[in-house]
């Protein structure tokens, strides 16, 4: 199963619980013969808990032996005599890990098992009413921590998803800007091509008209000299018009001033 976001927060909660249980156990069993076994078992439990991420990366099926082994350690520690109710809290970090590492169905099964083990252990180690009170208290604490961990993980996952969506939007925006720039360049190229064709057609037509007029003036020079000035005036007008049109088209070809 894919490791959920926010797992670091879950680990921090778990280490706080383990540290509290270890401190309480050392104070409770101080001066007793079973202090060393308790510390040894707690050390193994804490070490496995700390190494779980490394085990997960190297052994994908580690959870099939990790949870049974840790559950056995928690059960042994919880049932030591003299009885210390505080050690039943060791089921809470395992329950949080189950919801991160296992499927929802498998995690629920483990959570029910841990609640049952905690309840049976407290009922056997205490009187009925005292055990019932601690069961309700510890189950409430466990439910609160697991709910907090779930909400924290969900918030982290939503934040990661929001960042991913933001990155996607920024990428899409950059692509749209690129497409817009390409479209603008394409439109400018099409406009330049249109003006170039128009320039070519206009200049060709003007030169053709000027050529005809000049040839006509040359013919009139021999036949009707009196009409030559008229043709020259017409030729000058046509030349000025062609020059003005040429300047206008060239001005349109120039890039706009920023």
Question: What can you see in these coordinates?
Answer:
The chain is mainly α and 258 residues long. It has two domains: 161 residues, no CATH class; 79 residues, Single alpha-helices involved in coiled-coils or other helix-helix interfaces, CATH 1.20.5. α1 packs antiparallel against α2 and α2 packs antiparallel against α3. It is rod-shaped.
Layout of strands and helices, then pairs:
Elements (H helix, E strand, L loop, with lengths): L6 H23 L5 H24 L4 H16 L12 H11 L2 H22 L2 H96 L4 H26 L5
Helix pairs in contact: 1-2, 1-4, 1-6, 2-3, 3-4, 4-5, 4-6, 5-6, 6-7
What distance separates the N and C termini?
Answer: 58 Å
Gyration radius (Cα, Å) is: 45 Å
Mean pLDDT: 84
pLDDT below 50 for ≥5 consecutive residues: which ranges?
Answer: 1-5
The arrangement of helices and strands along the chain is HHHHHHH
Number of domains: 2
* SS-based class: mainly alpha
Number of strands: 0
User: What does the overall shape look like?
Assistant: rod-shaped
Q: Count of DSSP helices?
A: 7
What does this entry show, briefly?
This protein is mainly α and 258 residues long.
Protein traits:
0% strand; 7 helices; single chain; rod-shaped; disordered N terminus; mainly alpha
């Amino acid at each position: 199963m894919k490791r959920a976001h926010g797992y670091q927060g879950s680990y921090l909660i778990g280490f706080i619980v383990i540290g509290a249980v270890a401190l309480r156990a050392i104070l409770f069993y101080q001066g007793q013969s079973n202090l060393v076994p308790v510390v040894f078992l707690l050390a193994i439990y804490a070490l496995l808990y700390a190494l779980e991420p490394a085990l997960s990366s190297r052994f994908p099926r580690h959870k099939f032996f990790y949870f049974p082994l840790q559950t056995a350690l928690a059960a042994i520690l919880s049932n030591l005599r003299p009885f210390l109710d505080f050690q039943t809290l060791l089921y809470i970090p395992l329950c949080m890990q189950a919801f991160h590492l296992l499927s929802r169905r498998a995690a629920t099964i483990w959570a029910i098992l841990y609640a049952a083990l905690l309840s049976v252990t407290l009922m056997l180690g205490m009187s009925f009413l005292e055990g019932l009170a601690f069961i309700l208290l510890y189950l409430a604490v466990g439910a609160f921590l697991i709910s907090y961990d779930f909400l924290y993980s969900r918030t982290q996952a939503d934040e990661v998803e929001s960042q991913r969506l933001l990155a996607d939007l920024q990428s899409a925006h950059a692509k749209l800007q690129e497409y817009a720039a390409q479209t603008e360049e394409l439109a400018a190229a099409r406009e330049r091509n249109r003006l170039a064709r128009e320039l070519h057609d206009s200049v060709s037509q003007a030169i053709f008209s000027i050529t005809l007029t000049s040839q006509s003036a040359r013919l009139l020079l021999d036949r009707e000299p009196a009409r030559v000035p008229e043709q020259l005036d017409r030729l000058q007008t046509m030349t000025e018009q062609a020059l003005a049109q040429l300047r206008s088209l060239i001005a349109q070809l120039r890039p706009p001033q920023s």
